[in-house]
Amino acid sequence: MTMYFANFDQLIAMGGHGVYVWSAFAVTVAAMLWLAVAPVIKHRALLNDIQRDSQRNRQRQRDSQRQDQNQQAGQSAAVSNATTDSPSNQSEEDF
Amino acid sequence: MNLFSDWTWFHRLGSPRWFYQNSGRWLPWLSVVTLVVLATGLVWGLAFAPADAKQGNSFRIIYIHVPASFLALAGYYIMAIAGAVGLIWKMKLSYMVMKSAAPIGAVLTFIALFTGAVWGKPTWGTYWVWDARITSMLILLFLYAGVMALQYAYHSVDAASKAGAILALVGTVNIPIIYKSVDWWYTLHQPATIKLTSAPSMHPDMFQPLLVMIAGFYLFYALVLILQTRNEILRRERNTSWVRELAAAKMTTNTIANEAKSE
Fold first, then answer.
1. Number of domains forming the structure of chain A
2. How close, in Å, is residue B75 to chain A by CA atoms?
């Protein structure tokens, strides 16, 4: 198989149609690159975000558990009956 | 083979988790094959195919214009069918595919319109005419945009999916109009080059790279649809334990890799 054009300059010029052909191909390649690359970047960002979220959640749970323990240690056991929705349950529902 | 007697394959296919895990295995291969096929078709069409007797080299735009138009239409079928499956079987994954297909189809329709306009200038002497084919393709772009907009118009994901699916299904009336427009109202746009029922009206030297490009665009479409759907799965399933474990595992491998790099 041989190339249709004799040299590189002719390939660029496309017999006077170079502007049309190359602009059409450039826009298409750019649009398709964006279509393929954007979701890959988004994928990484999503995984990061989910990981950060669940870490924050776990931290909050740990904090609220510690709070509960402190409260229970400081106060009498009778109070714990009143706090039916404890902070640890709430923080789980928030997210 | 009990593929049809028991429906586990159908339910498995409908499971976002199953889809995410398996598609991850195909992605590297699919990416490489897509890149090779597209690069081959691009070089072949741009540099090796002969010029058209009447249109000269501007005809080379066909190598992106026709594949992009094909996929803009095929993508609409995929979106509408995914929407219908979601409505009928209430399949979550199906709605995710529908939502993912909309922006890809919109970009491909834009490519078809843009390359058509650029091709029109040297061939017809104008970038734009309100020809039936061109107008119906513009309507296709608006339909894609409509489905995309509906995904963000509702607070409830379920309501947005249903509304999108209904618009996608109603919009399918436009598809046969696009196909037939060049025959029904023949003004400027040329009739189809490729028909299933007859031989192509093109020389094989020009036709072969076009087939390669069409195959490449189909592969590309499949690749991007899978990538988008995987993101949509993560977005909608982010509170499930498997997604959290996945994110945690990815982060650990990343940190290990980064530490190894810095050492």
1. 1
2. 14
